[in-house]
């Protein structure tokens, strides 16, 4: 049974779901509290899983994007080794160019 929606649509919904989870993790650092919020987010996505009307789906996605933008954390958590993190490019190996001659 094939899906009436494209793979691009599925990827967009998956991306939206992951962004919701990451934003929830930015607001709640403790893993047990975050897990409860993740279950609520999953339930919200599951409620809209069987919607088939493309206009209704577009409206649901637009509303979800607006809610996500409205509640985005002002100072999101950045992992230490990711760009912008506290250890990004720390202790880089020396360049492997020609060595400087000593005189």
From TrEMBL:
Domain Complex 1 LYR protein intervals: 12-69
Membrane topology classification: Peripheral membrane protein
GO BP terms in the entry: mitochondrial electron transport, NADH to ubiquinone
Keywords: Acetylation, Electron transport, Membrane, Mitochondrion, Mitochondrion inner membrane, Phosphoprotein, Respiratory chain, Transport
Role noted for this protein: Accessory subunit of the mitochondrial membrane respiratory chain NADH dehydrogenase (Complex I), that is believed to be not involved in catalysis. Complex I functions in the transfer of electrons from NADH to the respiratory chain. The immediate electron acceptor for the enzyme is believed to be ubiquinone.
Main location, first listed in the record: mitochondrion
Subcellular location: Mitochondrion inner membrane
Quaternary state and interactors: Mammalian complex I is composed of 45 different subunits.
A single Gene Ontology CC term: mitochondrial inner membrane
Annotated source species: Rhizoctonia solani
Entry keyword Transport: yes
Pfam families given in the database record: Complex1_LYR
Name of this protein: NADH dehydrogenase [ubiquinone] 1 beta subcomplex subunit 9
PANTHER family to which the protein is assigned, alphabetical: NADH DEHYDROGENASE [UBIQUINONE] 1 BETA SUBCOMPLEX SUBUNIT 9, NADH-UBIQUINONE OXIDOREDUCTASE B22 SUBUNIT
Family: Belongs to the complex I LYR family.
């Amino acid at each position: 049974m094939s899906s009436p929606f494209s793979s691009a649509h599925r990827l967009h919904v998956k991306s939206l779901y992951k962004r919701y989870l990451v934003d929830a993790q930015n607001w709640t650092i403790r893993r047990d509290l975050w897990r409860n919020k993740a279950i609520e987010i999953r339930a919200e996505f599951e409620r809209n899983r069987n919607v088939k009307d493309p206009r209704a789906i577009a409206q649901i996605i637009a509303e979800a994007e607006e809610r996500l933008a409205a509640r985005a954390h002002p100072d999101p958590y950045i992992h230490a080794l990711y760009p912008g993190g506290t250890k990004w490019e720390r202790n880089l190996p020396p360049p492997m160019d020609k060595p400087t001659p000593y005189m």
